[in-house]
Specification:
A 4-stranded mixed β-sheet has the order 1-3-4-2. 19% of the residues are buried. Helix content is 47%, strand content 14%. It is elongated, with a radius of gyration of 15 Å. By secondary structure, the protein is of the alpha+beta class. The protein has one domain. The chain has 6 helices and 4 strands.
Amino acid sequence: MHSHAESISSPKDAADAYLSVRFGGNHPPAADEIATRAYIGQFDSHAELAQAIWAQSTVGIAELWVSRWPLTHIDWDAAGADLLEPLRLGDIVEVAGGHYFSGE
């Protein structure tokens, strides 16, 4: 996982920070499109990130099961930490303000 330490609140500022982390000062012509596709969202914790990624991958059933067993027994903090390992879902980039991007 990469982290960008400055305080960022808007998705546009977060996208700019992500592009700087990913490409340095040499942004490709399609940089805005790349940042838009890569944006996962803004979350208060790695656990919330893990839950959101799970919900995106189970569209239609997530709403029915998120508050039921066995999901109520998942250690979402540990799941979130696992997501940030580069070999899990690719390289997830976190910029300050809790904004996350896929590094693909």
